[in-house]
Specification:
The protein is an alpha/beta fold. The protein is built from nine helices and six strands, in the order H-E-H-E-E-H-H-E-H-H-H-H-H-E-E. The two termini are 28 Å apart.
Length: 243
């Protein structure tokens, strides 16, 4: 039976939205930015995934609804009387870094785990050089690197301050000040490009997320976690790594 836990101040509104939600099985597909979450989810949805990962996937996962932030249709109707059989959460475990959160307890993943009877977590862990290359190819190529590396710290501080302004007002300011601004790489992804090259930085995020799951398990959540990785020569083939 899902537990009811008090949400943090930042997520109180979302927590209240999910107060009566019941999900029998939650599948979390997670990892750092550009680790291959969308690729894995597309393969799961299409049923074209290959390799030993089949041994850790929930039964009948193909066709489960994928949760997207701000898109709650169907999820809020999943009550104790009519629970949702299965739900997939596409989650970037670097969101606390991106959204300036104190930890995962302030994010929607915490609430969804609390509302699920069973949780399977697939943590994607590509090799370091593969992760950097995928970030460069998927997020940076073809876009403008407008901010020099030396200025990223100051730019990120400005971005953080700017996000304290309510979204509606913030969007109006951006539209009026930069009406013809070209698409550029976000500050977050530019910072990541250099952070990914710092020894131990990405590993530290894996440890933080693992500790978060440990806390949820100790609180009573039924969690099974697995580290997975795509084959370098065939992105359809996924293996389960030794923990």
């Amino acid at each position: 039976m899902p537990r009811k836990t008090a949400p943090s101040k930042k997520t109180k509104r979302i927590g209240n939205m999910f107060e009566n939600v019941h999900v029998e099985h939650l599948l979390v597909v997670t990892g750092p930015t550009s680790s291959g979450k969308s690729t894995l989810l597309d393969l799961i949805e299409s049923g074209k995934i290959e390799g030993e990962i089949h041994s850790v996937l929930p039964e009948n996962v193909t066709g489960w609804k994928q949760f997207c932030h701000r898109e709650y249709d169907g999820i809020l109707d999943a009550t104790a009387e009519n629970p949702m059989k299965g739900l997939i959460l596409h989650y970037d475990f670097m969101r606390p870094f991106k959204k300036f959160l104190k930890g995962y307890e302030e994010d929607v993943i915490s609430t969804l785990i609390d509302r699920a009877g069973k949780v399977t977590v697939l943590i994607i862990r590509p090799d370091a050089e593969v992760l950097l290359e995928q970030l460069k190819k998927g997020e940076l190529d073809g876009n403008a690197m407008e901010t020099p590396p030396a200025d990223l710290g100051l730019r990120r501080l400005f971005t953080r301050t700017f996000h304290l302004i309510p979204p509606g007002i913030r969007n109006t300011i951006k539209k009026n000040l930069f009406p013809n601004r070209k698409i550029a790489v976000t500050d977050f992804n530019k910072v990541l490009y250099f952070k990914y090259q710092e020894q131990g930085w990405v590993d530290n995020w894996y440890r933080k997320f693992d500790l978060f799951l440990d806390g949820k398990a100790k609180a009573g959540s039924d969690i099974n976690r697995h580290f997975v990785q795509a084959a370098r020569d065939n992105r359809k083939v996924w293996k389960v790594l030794q923990q």
